[in-house]
Write a structure and sequence with these properties.
Blueprint: E1 2-8, H1 18-25, E2 29-30, E3 33-40, H2 44-58, E4 62-68, E5 75-78, E6 80-82, E7 109-111, H3 116-125, E8 130-133, H4 140-155, E9 160-166, H5 184-202
Parallel strand pairs: 1-3, 1-4, 4-9, 5-8
Antiparallel strand pairs: 2-3, 5-9, 6-7
Helix pairs in contact: 1-5, 2-4, 3-5
Length: 203
């Protein structure tokens, strides 16, 4: 099995993005699956194009996109992506869409095709916090999840795909009193457990 897993570059003035830091630290193989690790830009009009380009090059069986959700306290597995871009801040090139569809004429929403409840349970069974989420927001993360699932629906229906949000890491919250964080090593472990659950479900 080949799994394409992506993280995002830093955005919003942050010096790091734990999604990319964690993806880069994953083993190259987990329970027999080969991991293809890539970075995505926090740019509405580029992230999906870059992701689908990786998919065309690598022909993965599974695609898992990882993003940062500042303020969450654990691994957050997304169930739904909506056909909406509505940004409270600009992306990394300053684009700030308001009430714009991700894909004109596309369905209102897509559901993740990953085993989302099994991922959450596997992470929790290994002593780390995880929750199932029914909103990936309306920023670049949701845009990427929707674009991924739309591409799968149209071009490669046998591929499974979805999105996972991770918290801040401790160095990001030194000047953010009350904001939750999670050690980078624990994020890496949790993503490993998520991948194990995906591999088991596809076996």
């Amino acid at each position: 099995m080949k799994i394409l897993i992506t993280g995002f570059e830093p955005f919003g003035g942050e010096p790091v993005n734990p999604s990319l830091e964690a993806v880069q630290r994953l083993e190259n193989r987990i329970t027999g699956a080969e991991l293809i690790k890539r970075s995505l830009p926090v740019v509405f009009q580029k992230a999906v194009a870059q992701l689908t380009g990786y998919m065309e090059d690598e022909r993965p069986d599974v695609v898992i996109c990882i993003g940062q959700a500042g303020g969450v306290s654990g691994i957050t597995v997304e169930r739904i992506a909506v056909n909406l871009m509505d940004a409270s801040i600009g992306d990394n090139v300053g684009y700030q869409p308001e009430d714009v569809p991700v894909a004109a004429g596309g369905p209102n929403a897509y559901f993740s095709s990953l085993p989302v409840k099994k991922i959450v349970q596997r992470i929790k069974d290994n002593g780390l916090p995880a929750v199932l989420s029914n909103s990936a927001g309306t920023y670049v993360c949701n845009n990427t999840m929707y674009g991924l699932l739309h591409h799968i629906e149209q071009h490669c229906p046998d591929v499974r795909g979805g999105f996972i949000h991770v918290p801040y890491i401790p160095e990001q919250v030194l000047d953010k009193p009350g904001k939750a964080s999670m050690a980078l090593g624990d994020i890496v472990k949790a993503l490993g457990y998520a991948i194990e659950a995906v591999v088991d479900a596809r076996a």
